[in-house]
């Protein structure tokens, strides 16, 4: 078993992030092990407010052979989409050092401010998250090829990248006038069109990259299938099993907490999805994100988040044995000292092995150590305080329409007002 050299669970101790610049200082940061109760909407799914309940035995539950799927190894049902993503990765990567080598007039802080503004615009215009990620890719690649972009042109470039990305991704993209208005009409429509031509020429008309959003969304879908394949055969780990229980509401809540899923239409899965995607979004403001191929960004982030969610659920899925007497299950008390808790250490290793099997089958990464670089990059982002405000589209479309197209609902871009402060305080600027 490969041992991780990185913490896989939240810590109650305080770390500090050093900031280089005019004066060096340390900012204490503590990880929150519980979510803020931030989904404050009359139409939210009601979930019982109850302590995390876990199901344990001395050893992880081993289902009887007759209950196990005849296939012992999970495989992709179709790898054509994954292969198309892999084929594009290196071709569409930007120069990770373009700010230092190509752009003497553009600073790290200017890049963060522009990209945060672009995210907010995409959110307010009810655009898809992929539109924002496409625009970031275009912008980074353009700046990788054009030396000495002036400060006055920088926002125009970002605006044009969003304009182009929306035409690629959106069914009904905003009009050119809408885009000009989003920048307080600081740029004419003629300037935007002129910049679009220049942009397309400089990125060789290559406008269909495999973005971190593509990879992360696809991996989440495959993870949900993977978890159901390995644990869905146990009684109570499938939605269709829940009808037989008298206290269906309580059992459903425990099921949603236990099954570490991202795209199932329930509140806990939605919170996992939102938190993970917000970390992905805010990480794009950090120049370190450009150094990793999108596949490794997605795999590293998902590993960290899955480890976090297993920890928060007390690894209940690993030890749940399918017993129908829900009220008899006891919650296991975890020691504050990780080193003194063999249960937690063993469970952490099990999750690591489980995820290694997943990425081997899903994307062909044979050794989990390949993603340790991106895991290290994302680890400080566990401190980021997520926002669970519903997307702007909820103000314009009915709940029934959004629920009937849940995958589309998940695709809408959101914006967190804490993005800039977090990245600016954690980034070591020199």
Automatic annotation (TrEMBL):
Q: Name one GO biological process term.
A: cell division
**Signal peptide limits:** none
Report the residue ranges that make up the Cyclin-like domain in this protein.
116-201
Domain of life of the organism encoding this protein: Eukaryota
Ordered alphabetically, the record's keywords are: Cell cycle, Cell division, Cyclin
Family that this chain belongs to: Belongs to the cyclin family.
What is this protein identified as? Cyclin-like domain-containing protein
Organism of origin: Stentor coeruleus
């Amino acid at each position: 078993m490969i041992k991780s050299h990185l913490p896989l669970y939240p810590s109650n101790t305080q770390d500090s992030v050093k900031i280089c610049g005019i004066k060096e200082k340390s900012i204490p940061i503590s990880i929150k092990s519980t979510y803020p109760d931030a989904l404050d909407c009359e139409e939210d799914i009601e979930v019982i407010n109850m302590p995390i309940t876990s199901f344990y035995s001395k050893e992880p539950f081993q289902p009887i052979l007759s209950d196990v799927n005849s296939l012992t190894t999970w495989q992709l049902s179709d790898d054509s989409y994954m292969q198309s993503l892999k084929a594009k990765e290196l071709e569409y990567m930007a120069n990770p050092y373009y700010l230092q080598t190509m752009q003497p007039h553009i600073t790290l802080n200017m890049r963060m401010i522009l990209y945060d503004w672009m995210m907010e615009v995409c959110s307010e215009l009810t655009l898809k998250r992929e539109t924002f990620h496409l625009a970031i890719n275009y912008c980074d690649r353009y700046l990788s090829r054009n030396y000495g972009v002036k400060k006055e042109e920088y926002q125009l470039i970002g605006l044009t990248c969003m304009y182009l990305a929306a035409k690629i991704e959106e069914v009904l993209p905003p009009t050119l006038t809408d885009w000009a208005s989003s920048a307080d009409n600081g740029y004419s429509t003629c300037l935007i069109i002129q910049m679009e031509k220049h942009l397309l020429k400089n990125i060789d008309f290559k406008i269909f990259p495999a973005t971190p959003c593509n990879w992360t969304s696809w991996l989440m879908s495959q993870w949900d299938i993977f978890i159901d394949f390995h644990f869905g055969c146990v009684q109570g780990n499938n939605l269709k099993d829940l009808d037989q229980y008298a206290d269906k509401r309580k059992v459903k809540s425990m099921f949603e907490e236990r099954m570490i899923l991202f795209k199932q239409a329930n509140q806990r899965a939605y919170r996992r999805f939102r938190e993970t995607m917000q970390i992905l979004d805010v990480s794009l403001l950090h120049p370190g994100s450009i150094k990793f191929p999108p596949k490794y960004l997605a795999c590293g982030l998902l590993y960290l988040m899955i480890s976090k969610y297993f920890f928060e659920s007390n690894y209940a899925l690993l030890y749940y044995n399918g017993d129908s007497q829900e009220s008899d299950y006891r919650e296991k008390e975890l020691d504050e000292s990780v080193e003194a808790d063999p249960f937690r250490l063993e469970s952490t290793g099990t999750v690591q092995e489980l995820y290694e099997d997943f990425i081997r089958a899903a994307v062909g990464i044979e050794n989990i150590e390949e993603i340790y670089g991106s895991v290290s990059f994302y680890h400080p982002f566990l401190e980021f305080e997520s926002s669970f405000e519903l997307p702007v589209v909820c103000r314009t479309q009915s709940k029934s329409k959004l629920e009937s197209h849940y995958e589309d609902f998940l695709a809408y871009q959101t914006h967190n007002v804490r993005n800039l402060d977090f990245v600016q305080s954690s980034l070591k600027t020199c």
